[in-house]
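For the sake of transparency, this paper describes our internal protein records without simplification. The tokens are whole numbers drawn from a learned vocabulary of local backbone shapes. One such record is reproduced below, unchanged from the form in which we store it.

. . .
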Amino acid sequence: MRIPTVAVYSTADADCLHVRLADEAICIGPPPNQESYLNIPNIITAALITRAQAVHPGYGNLSENAAFAENCEACKLKFIGPPASVIERMGDKLAAKQAMKAAGVPVIPPEVDKPVTDDQEAVRTAARLGYPVMIKANAGGGGRGIRIAYHEEDLVANLPVARSEAEAAFGRPEVYLEKHVEEPRHVEVQVLADGQGNLVHLGERDCSIQHRHQKLLEESPGPGLSPKLRAAIWQAALRGARAIGYVGAGTMEFLVDPQDRFYFLEMNTRIQVEHPVTELVTGIDLVKEQIRIAAGEKLGYGQKAITRRGHALECRITAQDPAADFKPSAGKVESFRVPGGSGVRVDTHLYAGYTIPPFYDPLLAKLVVWGRDRREAIARMARALGEMEVTGVKTTIPFHQRVLANSFFRKGDITVNFIARRLKNSDYR
């Protein structure tokens, strides 16, 4: 698009690849997130002194922070995302559920309409819902601040942990309870809206392969969905996005139970880590569309113009040791070999000699492949994983190889409990 870019970085990321690739780079503080990547005054200042016109928040830290969006607008910086009011509404998970229910989008019954204020109220609410229940951060997202309680002792023990995680991740300790859906699939729908009445979906992604609610492998189209169910989820996503006046790229997330009933989970009012799989099957550059929409342009196409072709998979390669319950593995990258060939894409900030800092999310690379169908995509991903080399730190490459070789995965028989049920005793060494 020929738009010059300004990268911001903490002192821990001074040698990171995005700093080298940007036209300009500004240090915004020391490693702790609160002092750099969550430091709104420093980020705004960096934008102003470099005469930037817009701010793209990425998919972490301040990407779903309404106050940040408001600050950008107040300083005449275009926030590349939805209006602050929409971010705030959908960032409150209970308010989001109420909005979706009003729009006719299914939500998980029985309904809960407020956070639990103390342990006694939590015990009463859980008894009403029936165990097992989910403890969830009300300002949550990205799988953080979530715990499952199977009985009252579980609940009381996990409440302070969930509150602490919520406070650390989102600055708000409020949690609420929700009936736990057993053995669900996690299915999400990508939407685009231009703020001028044009709204489309770009199909669904399946994100069921997870560890502690953190997504590890995503694919599109989602396996095992009937045409009727797929269409119903698409239409629910469009209804929900239209009801809140959404603008930009966003994702409506759903849980699908074993009886093919689906329920609204949350909306991510940002681009997602797994957006490349949608790009590969639709041919639409989602980040480019975000920028076009933020600049006031119309989408320029309707739902009928969007076609999905083939199948795409994304493996999140992280600095974690799957043989040690995904323990983080920071350190120096001694060698780094990237796979290539037709239908292979790698998004990464790595290079040989780079030292992975211990302060941030362990994501190292997104390995994404496209195939004419799911079988070819799996074969291509298996080949790419075999070619990929990262030495000096432990990674999840062996984990993904185990998943792709698993007969249940190959059949598309996957749920959010896949790792515990199908790979629990696997040897990744």
About this structure: The chain has three domains: 6-86, 109-179, 185-422. The domain at 6-86 is CATH 3.40.50.20 (Rossmann fold).
